[in-house]
Amino acid sequence: MELTGASAVVTGGASGLGAGTVRALVAQGVRCTIFDRNEQGARALADELGSLANVVAGDVTKPEDCQRAVDQAAEGGQLRIAVNCAGTGWVGRVINKDNSPHDLDAFRFIQELNVIGTFNVMTRAASAMAKQEPQANGERGLVVNTASVAAFDGQIGQLAYSASKGAVVAMTLPAARDLSVVGIRVITIAPGLFDTPLLGLLPEEQRQALGQSVLFPKRLGDPAEYGALVVHLAQNPYLNGEVIRLDGGIRMPPK
Fold first, then answer.
1. Secondary structure in 3-state letters for the chain
2. What is the mean pLDDT of the chain?
3. pTM for the full model?
4. Residue 76: predicted pLDDT
5. What is the structure's pLDDT at 66?
6. What tens digit of pLDDT does each residue of 196-213 get?
7. Of 51, 54, 130, 229, which sits most exposed with the smallest number of CB within 10 A?
8. Which conformational region is residue 202 in: left (phi greater than 0), alpha (psi within -120 to 50 degrees), or beta?
9. pLDDT tens, 132-170?
10. What domain range includes position 144?
């Protein structure tokens, strides 16, 4: 895909993996719409990056907010990339220590954010991309969704989170097949342990221990490495319908 002059929408783009993606795409000349509930953080990043970054404040679980973000990214007719990084985790076992069942509202919240949010942006972005003129190789766009190694190596307490990320994995191939007719590729990245604001809440000693659990290199992943992979996916047209683990070789233990 030719990136210079293209535009992208990145959910959760104000921090973590999303911010790493925005920085990597802007460095390639891509105009990025940062779509995030954290408007202050999104605007700070946009101010840092200059004219190629703009902001839509909103919630991926609200279809109308997703449409606003896609519409802004599509202005000028060059929406080529959508990256879904918005999401969060949850800790809760199937039954609690008192043998009461997992909270349904918590389970539903994680599915709404991680699965429905991904669906909302993917479908709307693909609809906009399908209306664009194809590039020379017939390609119109790329959707990158974010799963997690928890989709495969779910730990104790990750019932809701693993279910949501497993759903993102399962959407990958049918979405790629559906969109192949209009020249849109769909790929999912399954990150391992990354240095994001979520892990930033942990004590430094615990963060170091998590890094040492990675096969190699023995550290937490850098969001810039996630962004670099997104750029490569955009530039390599033969990657499609695949789930790629970006995890330093880690296989998560039960806890």
1. CCCCCCEEEEECCCCHHHHHHHHHHHHCCCEEEEEECCHHHHHHHHHHHCCCEEEEECCCCCHHHHHHHHHHHHCCCCEEEEEECCCCCCCECCECCCCCECCHHHHHHHHHHHHHHHHHHHHHHHHHHHCCCCCCCCCCEEEEEECCHHHCCCCCCEHHHHHHHHHHHHHHHHHHHHHHHHCEEEEEEEECCECCHHHHCCCHHHHHHHHHCCCCCCCCECHHHHHHHHHHHHHCCCCCCCEEEECCCCCCCCC
2. 96
3. 0.96
4. 76
5. 98
6. 987 877 788 888 999 999
7. 51
8. beta
9. 999 989 999 999 999 999 999 999 999 999 999 999 999
10. 7-195+221-245
Residue owning tokens 């994680």: 110
The domain tally of the chain equals 1
Task: Give me the pLDDT at residue 77, please.
Answer: 77
* 159 within a domain of the structure (yes/no): yes
Residues serving a catalytic function are: 161
With respect to residue 204, please indicate whether it lies within any of the assigned structural domains: no
Q: For residue 208, is it within any domain?
A: no
- Look up the CATH number of the domain holding residue 76: 3.40.50.720
- For the stretch 236-255, pLDDT in tens is 999 999 999 999 999 999 98
Residue 27 placed within a domain = yes
Using alpha carbons, list the distances in angstroms from residue 211 to 129, 134, 154.
Answer: 38, 42, 18
